[in-house]
Amino acid sequence: MLFRSFQGPHNWYKAFPKCAGKNQSPIEINEKDTTRVNLGNLKLEGFFKNDKTSISRWGVANDGLKVYINLEGTYYISKGGLEGRHKAYNLYFNWGRVDGRGSEHKLDGKFYDGEIQIVSYSMSAQKQSGFVTMIKVVEKDNPLLKELINAVKKVKYRGEATNVPTLDNLADLLSPDFGNFYRYEGSRTWPECTTGVTWTVWRTPLEMGRAQMEEFRGLYNKEKGTADNIHIADTVRPLQPRDGRKIEYNSQHNYRTDVEASI
User: Fold this and answer.
1) Which residues are in the Alpha-carbonic anhydrase domain (predicted)?
2) b/e string for 111-144 if b means 16 or more Cβ within 10 A?
3) What percent of the chain has pLDDT over 70?
4) Would you call 14 helix, strand, or coil by DSSP?
5) Rounded to whole angstroms, how far apart are CA atoms 168 and 159?
């Protein structure tokens, strides 16, 4: 990644001018400053084990800045006020060195312990999108994350990759409540900081056990055997100005509970 050599996100604009533009992400979202809307429920396809459109295999990798997952199969998100049908291509994980930081977005004055971003795109609408789940560290392990954590243990150093062969629900890596989310227009949170991204930020965090989070915090930013290796953490872009943007808040029945009850 070219932007590694530019000494942090405050200098990205030197090579990527869009990073100094308006309507950038991430931002702080305060519910009191949002506009209540009725966008209806999102529709997620391929995210549940009874949905035969998905393939149960992920490629998990350490790129020295984050852990990312390449999604093989067909995972789509639509409706809920979105233009078109958005295909999910990747998931990115951010986390902090300690609790209370690690997320890129900030909700009601609070940074979370980590953040998961889905990178997605709609061919029909020619529209980029992103979906955010906050991570909250709790004392007890989340059993739904077992396979993911086993994979993370195998990508200790930059450049290492592995597969998660046994996947039931991709939804297990998302917010437990699909019905409550914020919506705004922003940018990618890494260079080239491209704007025109429709962000959906779920309000309810995913819980991750403390020992599980420590597996992320134990990953290294360089290849195995490098002398100056340090642990990956806090590789987040600072908050960006709101620039007068409208932020919507959509509150619906959590239809995820209905889907899972039928599985």
Assistant:
1) 1-251
2) bbbbbbbbbbbbeeeebbbbbbbbbbbeeebbeb
3) 90
4) helix
5) 26
Going by C-alpha positions, the residue among 259, 130, 100 that lies closest to residue 200 is 130
**Nearest Cα to 201, choosing from 144, 145, 129?**
129
The pLDDT tens digits of the residues spanning 186-195 come to 999 999 999 9
Torsion over CA: 136, 25, 185, 72 (sign) = negative
| Fold (topology level) of 11-261 | Carbonic Anhydrase II (3.10.200)
Give the model confidence (pLDDT) of 131-160 as tens digits: 999 999 999 999 999 999 999 999 999 999
Please state the φ and ψ torsions of residue 25, each to the nearest 5 degrees: -125, 155
Return the SS3 of 126. coil
d(CA 18, CA 230): 30
Mean pLDDT of the residues in the chain? 91
Q: How far apart are CA 233 and CA 219, in angstroms?
A: 9
Q: Using DSSP bridges, classify how beta strands 106-107 and 86-95 pair: parallel, antiparallel or unpaired.
A: unpaired
pTM score: 0.94
As a whole number of angstroms, the distance between CA 139 and CA 12 comes to: 37
Contact status, residue 110 vs residue 136, Cβ threshold 8 Å: no
231/228 Cα distance (integer angstroms): 10
Question: Do residues 250 and 80 touch, judged by C-beta distance below 8 A?
Answer: yes
